[in-house]
């Protein structure tokens, strides 16, 4: 029976994108309300052209919102909003807005720009806007420029705007740095929580998650999988005779060897102590037994050494396929029973039993 699957959790950057998206919707809606109100005020003050221009900008913002709703393209939406807001502020500077207060709206631009773009783009756009402001202020006779500002106003406007821009730049740069450090830290913690420190393999918790994921996939679409539970034989003796460091080196060397034998889609993990688990997606019991047998013979052949000392290392493994088990617990239990059987039968072997190539060759032909 197919079970409903939980939606994949969003990544940190996807969550941030969604947050910026919500903020932009909120900003656009606020801008529309403000422009409608200020436009109405201008209309009643009989500044009809000014009112119509402001309402025209409502149209541009609404088009930008609709385009995003249709395409979902966040980059275009940000660029569109920056262009519309930039044009609006240029108009307010050139026309003076109500009572020559138009340029004051420009103070909204630096924090918005640095939030919506990266530092380089934000600085470039801001410098371009400065240039436009200088042209508008210095050449009041240009077409479409109807406002004139006093020298005192211009000096104060540019000084305060420069201060604000530098502050915004520095704050945004430190916000980005802190964000980067936090993400890197979170990533390394997350990796550490999934990884076994000694061998670098997936740890038991990660293997449990992967097994659950594979089991859900099996329930959803019937993709079979198998597992091999592996134990290093008489490992205590290696520790006792050659020391704990030698034991650790064997665990690391075995892990590296195992990685070379399995496929890229297989996952090897440390199940605990000297026990390992391999998850083999899309693999039948027979295929899993073949792989386990290959690993067993590779390990038996491999010259494990600690300094000058040759170390005797062999493995036993219990293999099981999901086709032979009703649940994950059952699968692990059966693999464990098979591993126990392999140990009982004398170690350095795989259970359920498969005939090795040497045995095939030695058996009398019928
Ligand atoms: N060096 C080292 N030893 C470990 C580590 N984890 C577990 N061990 C040792 O692995 C040994 C496991 O011993 P046993 O459970 O008796 O099993 P065994 O000696 O492998 O015998 P069989 O499993 O019956 O073949 C113990 O001595 C543990 O101390 C580890 O991270 N490093």
TrEMBL record:
One of its GO terms (cellular component) is plasma membrane. It comes from the Bacteria. InterPro entries: Diguanylate_Cyclase (IPR050469), GGDEF_dom (IPR000160), Nucleotide_cyclase (IPR029787), Rev_trsase/Diguanyl_cyclase (IPR043128). Its cofactor is Mg(2+). It catalyses: 2 GTP = 3',3'-c-di-GMP + 2 diphosphate. Its EC number is 2.7.7.65. The chain crosses the membrane at residues 23-44, 50-67, 79-96, 124-141. Keywords: Membrane, Transmembrane, Transmembrane helix. It is an enzyme of class 2 (transferase). GO terms for molecular function: diguanylate cyclase activity. The keyword Coiled coil does not apply. Residues 223-355 form the GGDEF domain. Gene3D superfamilies: 3.30.70.270. Pfam families: GGDEF. The keyword Membrane applies. One of its GO terms (biological process) is cell adhesion involved in single-species biofilm formation. Coiled coil: none annotated. This is diguanylate cyclase. It comes from Marinobacter gudaonensis.
